[in-house]
UniProtKB/TrEMBL annotation:
Key words of the record: Membrane, Transmembrane, Transmembrane helix
Domain spans labelled DUF112: 18-443
Entries under InterPro entries matching the protein: DUF112_TM (IPR002823)
Positions of transmembrane segments: 20-53, 59-82, 103-130, 136-156, 168-188, 200-218, 263-284, 359-382, 394-410, 416-432, 437-454, 474-491
Pfam families (alphabetical): TctA (PF01970)
Organism: Ureibacillus aquaedulcis
Protein name: Tripartite tricarboxylate transporter permease
Amino acid sequence: MFDLIIEGFSLVLNFHTMLLILGGTLLGLMFGLIPGLSATMAVAICLPITYGMGPVEGFALLIGLYIGGSSGGFIPSVLLNLPGTPSSVATTFDGYPMAQKGLAGRAFGISIITSFWAGLISIIVLVLVAEPLAKFALNFGPFEFFAVALLALTLISSLSEGSLLKALIAALLGLTFAFVGSAPIDAYPRFTFGMNELSAGFNMLPVLIGIFAISEMLKIIENKNKISTPGSQLNIDQAKIKGLGWPLKDFWKQKWNFIRSTIIGLGIGILPGIGGGTANLVAYGTAKKQSKYPEKFGTGIDDGVVASEASNNATIGGDMVPLISLGIPGDTVTAMLLGGLMLHGLQPGPLLIEQNGPIVYSIYAALFIANIFMVILLYLGMRGFVKMLSIEKYYLYPIIIALCVVGAFGVNNRLFDAFALLGFGILGYLMVKTKFPLVPLILGFILGPLLETNLRRGLQLSDGSFMPFVTEPISGLFLLATVLSIVFSVIKERKSRMNKSANIAG
């Protein structure tokens, strides 16, 4: 492992690659701090740009975007009470009251320091856990891979916010789109309707960019009359940080809160499809329950900001664990990174580290370096980042949509992909309007080929019998966990409905 770490850093420590990490982190911070934009959107827009790069350079840019986009959301959360990213929702609970007390600089210091250390710890855990998990997964056959993919899909659906039924429908819709084109193993054409463009199925990039970026832009454009520029009246002096913004002795007082929130972020990150949007709320709620003074939460105390930001950045390494070791994305951004692996001819899954060890460890190195760049850029450029909040949004959105269309077209130079991008964007917009979650759809699209291929291979090995999927110990355990996750979600949803009915009756 030590030799691979050295080789990974040697691939990254050159001027061109370091510049890509720096530029990606800076651009990611800009996307993270502007409400309505996100790390997912930043990676979606820039993913086609990496097509002409090598895998090391391409992932250097993408990792910078990931780290920056995940970290910059605390700025509008503190100053405007508007979370820059879903992962910063809980930061508003105490960060904004701190700013109202004139302690915005302290809130920034807490956010930067806890984000850095939690992110660093999560990267170390990623390096230590991913390879042993991948080696364990090398023992998997088609029965086990089918069960793992099914568990990931149902876990994502069952843990999605809102209706379980809508989440499962979205997952099935994603599977349906994955079936378009030639079938695995026998290459039989399906759902092509005589169109040659559909013979290879839908390209992953237009699907990802359309669902996540175009749909978000359409939603924002619809609400254009509601969009104001709250940052235009900000007092830039609020962004001033004295020293590190947070004394070391105060950080030490928060050590157990920090450790607990980091562990929560790591654990939730490793579970496929959940991510920092859930982790920061869970960590905040846990910190409040464990506190000796829960009544002070929401009034502007250090504890709430520490819990939210530590868990937020700890999910970064956690989300990467299933991606690197199993080829299953941990959240929406790692779904984009999965597309990046495929774009550069790297096969995600347990063999990724064995066959492409230096490239994987260069990704680890890029994560570490981007984490350092994130801290430096935030401390040096805080006042400039705050000024960006006053930029009129209607300058940004047309440029973003144009970049999305050009990127989708540029991968295969097919106009069909540009139309597919717009089609999936409209689909994503309609799903958001009707409160269908997007993550199960995109994970269904990504996991569909893995599910189908291993199902068919398993049935061939068992002469058409499904029993080995159940009787093999590992696959049987995963299928049992799948059933339990659905049952748990049904019970949880029923209790929620009963509580709502009781409240209405009361």
